[in-house]
Amino acid sequence: MMKKFSPVIEWFTLLFCTGTVLLFLIAILWDLISRGWSSLSWEFITALPSDGMTKGGILPAITGTVILTLLTALLAVPLGISCAIYLNEYAKDGWLTRLIRASIRNLSGVPSIIYGLFGLALFVQGFRMGTSMLAAGFTLGLLSLPYIISTTEEALRRIPASTREAALGVGATQFESIRDVVLPSALPGILTGIVLTLSRAAGETAPILFTGVAFYINGSSGYLNQEFMALPYHLYMLSTQHQAIEQVRPLAYGTALVLVMVVFLLNLTAFYIRYKYRNNE
Amino acid sequence: MSEEIIKLSAQGINLWFGNKQVLKNVSVTFPERKVTALIGPSGCGKSTLLRCFNRMHDLSPDARIEGKFMLENQDLYDKKVSVTQVRKRVGMVFQKANPFPKGIYENINYGLKINDVPSKERPGIIEQALKESYLWEEVKDDLKKPATRMSGGQQQRLCIARTVALRPEVILMDEPCSALDPISTRKVEELIVQLKEQYTIVIVTHNMQQAQRVADKTIFMYLGEVVEEGNTNDIFNNPVKELTKNYVSGHFG
Question: Which chain B residues are within 8 Å of A176, Cβ to Cβ?
């Protein structure tokens, strides 16, 4: 009797769990869209804020977040991939390598506000960058590094030894085999890790709080040596710190919706690259 | 086996992975332009021995090798010889077909490119290699097709084409048919017999019939040691040692 029903129960339990997760996702999206849709307009994404944030758009926050994310990627992606290649392909499996790997794992568990304080001490004050886009980008870059290293290493580890040997067998050096065969094979996995990490970085508030973000700046956002506006911080200010909270609530929902869309676009880009790559394979 | 030229040889080989000794005082010779089969039960060290000849253990930090490997008069482990030079002269075909994640043409082109073959010579060499591997007629209309979408047998023949394109002197084959169906296996075996006119071939195999079909010489290994070597015919029909007799007649393995 049990044997007969257990597949049904297993199937139902798993379906139920998946459904629950999906339900939350749909609830959040529905909440955001239903309340934020009305404030979305061409003006909202192309104009500067006006009248003490109660009117106008959020263009500086959008450009700020996009440039900040690009800067983060520019710092964390090459460094993270190189580090993962070293750890997975070159480093001998000794105590030092294990220590480095364990430290990287621990770093990814450090709360993001600690990165913010570290960035304030090192980049803003130590390197005299001031509160600026550059300091915030470096801080977010540091925050993203451990994730990129771990996911890249994981992707490299999944490439079987026979793939490496194929290149070595025709006379490639170890570096050539990694550059021409191993990395391209691991690219989909690496890209997924990068996009997830950058999506998280784009939504971070704590690390940029002390290092460069501003509630309001006059004019455009995006100079490396100046303070900038960013979507998550803008959302935080509009929903908790503004003097006319009820009045700006639709704008806050609009901002949240735009942030989600920026992250979605980022994911879509990676999806497209993976798709194109798979077709070329 | 007289009047044969020794192309490749190993003398007094001991090999350890960590503390485990995998090869024990192994000495073998491989005659030029012949097929030599390495047989023996799983774990006897035949693949390990094969991989020594193109220095595939170089990147395993826990492998320790003693002894001399010679390709004609060249010591393969000489400090002055680069590993890529060795691999150009001693090509390898692996157990599981492992084409690059690229198109058919690019799969062969890659080896030529990294070995600095001038680009205007490459199309001819690639066509020639595909013809030698009896693949040309099957693929000539779509050389851009991803190699991963070919059949298993075609993939393995592409791997052989990729190896012969570099004009090696020796081709090592590590159970090249173990993942193939009987028809593909037959095609690869016919190819091996053709290739020995130009190349010295060493093949590791678990398949007794295969060894008898393709090999001129057979070496039987057991627990990291060479038990018996000789003419394939003698090894299978007239073995000297009791152990060899039991193995080739299927009593263990």
Answer: 114
